[in-house]
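It would be a great kindness if you could assist me with a short task in structural biology. Thank you for your consideration; the sequence and its tokens are set out here.
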Amino acid sequence: MGLLLVTLGAALGTVKVLAERSIEAETASTILVEVAALSDLQARDGLEALRAEIARRREQRLGGTLYLLFDPAGELIESNVTGWSEPVPGTPLWLPLRVTPTGEREIRARAYAVGLDDGSQLIVGRTLDAQEAFARALNRSLLVAFTGALVIGLAGGILLARRTERRVEQMSDVIDAVRGGSLDARLPARTTGGDEFDRLSARINRLLEESEALIRGMRQVTDDVAHDLRTPLQRLHTRLEEALSHAEGQVYDEIEAALEDLDRLLRLFRTVLLITNTESGAPKQSFQEVDVAAIAQDAAELYEAVFEERGIGFEHAAPNPQHRARVRGNAALLAQAIANLLDNAAKYTPTGGSVRLTVGVGEPMVIEVRDTGPGIPGARRSEVLRRFTRLDAARETPGHGLGLALVNAVAKLHGGELELDDAAPGLAVRLTLPTLAAKAA
């Protein structure tokens, strides 16, 4: 009997530890999602925009989320709590807080402090009320289990463990979906008669709704800017072309140079909008079955003359037409991605070098462009996938640092990935895409 009681206690104790750790992990993930959203807001719109957003949230009900914002001089410039007035050293780091929300009692919280790129510091936290309430409820369950029948206690422990595991898996799946770009993903939660998990799920859902609204608002700003600038830029282009037709001498040369600059600006503008639209996932609505090998063949034929003109050897290893893998995706974006890879290879491969385009039809499908150029240092390969990133060696070549950023966005849109590797010498860029057969399985 004593051994059975010890076993029961150990089983229920294990359930308690697993549940608490799971909630802690989900709380940490929730905080990190909020920090990422606010950091993006600061990076794009500046410290004042971040301060205004926190001020707006301060006027709302706390909802379990804490905010503290310090300027680069270490002064507290915005907060929805009292009792904490100094930045913390050694960011980023996790820290416990005892703070007092506006109009409420002192509470315990867990927070994450991070330094922003302008020297300011942001602290975002979550109250521990839900975790403490869950711990109290679980302790009561343990007492009832030990004082009740051994069989009922054991069955209840097993049931609770399985139920907790399912709920934690649901939370993990939703968080993974949100990180993958599905902003509308939500946790299941009962509005009446719910337990601690339901209340926690409801709070996380509110946070996800706020994050979705923030991200969609920023995307709307981008769309508005696109709408407002496209017409005047195109009108300016038309006027310059008309002026060019009547100009002579130096005036002609100046207008022609201005037109070239404007063309580059329009291309930059279109590329940024294309990346933004791709990252939003909107092109998924037009997905259809496409033959990537045929797209690669067209791109190879298009760039063959470019490589020949620059004295670069070019080889295209096409797969057997009878074994071409099918991919569900956007043909125009995939064509643009392959063209960008070939264009980069043409820019950075010296005369006398070589470029090879290979399309593998296994699972996953791999499109590889390998060149004999200077390559990219391993420590900076992830850096060049971000927008407007150009290495020092690339400063003298035309471009804006958007080519690989677009390819990376296209890869993620299609459920694939972009990998940069050493070609010894040169760079090997691999675009992997899941095939239709794999998705169906």
About this structure: The chain has a mean pLDDT of 79.
